[in-house]
Structures are given as C-alpha cells and as structure tokens.
Specification:
Blueprint: H1 3-36, H2 46-78, H3 88-121, H4 129-132
Length: 133
C-alpha cells in the first residue's frame, strides 16, 4: 500500500469518526431536549405520542449504532488487519446515519403536527370587531 493511500485511509477514518460523534451528539441532544418537556405531552393525541415514540426509537438506534461504528474504528486502529469500513462497521455506520435522518424527520413531523393541532384548536380572531367598537 502506497504512503498516500495510507494517509487517505487515515483521513477517511478521522472524517467517519467525526461524523459519528456529531450524529451521536445531535441525536442525544434531541432526545434530552424533547424529554425535558414531557409534562406538556399529557394533553397530546395518541397519534402524536406514537410519532414521538418512533422518533425517539430511531434516534436511540442511531446512537447505539454510532457507538458501534466508533468501536469498530478504534478496533481497526489497534488491529491493522481489521478494516472497519467493511462488514459490521460499515453496516453500523449506515444504520446510524439512516436512523438518525429518519428520527429527525419523524421529530420534525411531530413538531409540525403538534403546532398544526394547536392552530386548529384556536378560534381565529375577528379583525372587524376592532372597528365595530
């Protein structure tokens, strides 16, 4: 293996490691922040709670497989014969990435539906009342 290939391989590992750390941080942040407001969820519809629960599940899966990917990257640095980017390490990274995107999309759907539900529940103001007084 040429010296430039080794350097490129090391850089790819660093980028992948940084991506996994960012995914784990963002997913954990969404979980922590949304769990902070659990008391406000008691008045929500069952459908909204299901969307939120599936979002949380996807984000938890993303964190788990992100940690598995980091573990595979560390193992590949300790054992030069092990290539994290093939097999389980690659699959873990893919699962982490796609479940993160899915979890964020579901969380955005939850936020939109929650906001839309509150907008529908409100009676629209009558702007002409001001002029009639």
């Amino acid at each position: 293996m040429a010296n430039t290939e080794i350097t490129e391989d090391i850089e790819a590992h660093k980028v992948a490691l940084e991506l996994m750390k960012q995914i784990i941080t963002l997913a954990s942040g969404v979980l922590a922040l949304s769990a902070t407001f659990l008391e406000k969820l008691s008045s929500m519809s069952f459908l909204l709670l299901i969307v939120l629960a599936v979002s949380w599940l996807a984000l938890l899966v993303s964190v788990f497989f992100g940690l598995e990917t980091i573990s595979a990257i560390v193992k590949s640095r300790l054992d030069p014969d092990y290539q994290w980017s093939k097999g389980y390490g690659k699959d873990s990274a893919r699962i982490s990435k796609y479940t993160f995107v899915g979890g964020i999309a579901l969380f955005a759907l939850f936020a939109f539906l929650s906001l839309a539900g509150k907008m529908v529940d409100r009676t629209p103001p009558n702007h002409f009342d001001y002029f009639l007084q």
